[in-house]
Design goal:
- There is one protein chain.
- The longest helix has 21 residues, at about 70-90.
- Strands 3-2-1-4 form a 4-stranded parallel β-sheet, sandwiched between helices.
- The protein is built from 5 helices and 4 strands.
- It is elongated.
- With about 110 residues, it is an alpha/beta fold.
- The chain has 2 domains: about 5-65, NAD(P)-binding Rossmann-like Domain (Rossmann fold); about 80-110.
Length: about 110
């Protein structure tokens, strides 16, 4: 099967590389971009085109697949949520002493028992 579509994959880690290789096996022209040089070396050895930037991928591809990890964004969001939640609960109480915090943590988290 010979497809004329050029496909770009940004983020060629475990999932992105598998997608790129499967598309290449189906006859598509695939270009990848990853921030890790070892992934790009593996891609070159597999016959994939390696682009120097996401802009180069955009110039090469008719269709772009983005497979990047957003774990940092998720972690930051969770930290902000927990901080706001804790502060709102703390400010809603009339007392702000250590005994209140100990009691609150033992009920909410169940780790600290005083």
């Amino acid at each position: 099967m010979n497809n004329n579509k050029n496909i770009g994959v940004i983020g060629a880690g475990s999932m992105g590389m598998a997608i790129a290789l499967n598309l290449q096996d189906k006859g598509y022209q695939v270009a990848i971009r990853d921030i890790r040089s070892d992934i790009e070396t593996t891609a070159r050895h597999s016959g994939l085109t390696v682009c120097s930037s996401p802009a180069a991928i955009a110039a090469h591809a008719d269709f772009i697949i983005i497979m990047v990890v957003i774990i940092i964004i998720i972690m930051i969001g969770c930290c902000i949520f927990l901080s706001v939640y804790f502060l709102m609960n703390l400010l809603a109480q009339p007392e702000f002493g250590c005994s209140y915090l100990r009691h609150r943590f033992s009920i909410r988290i169940g780790i600290i028992k005083y």
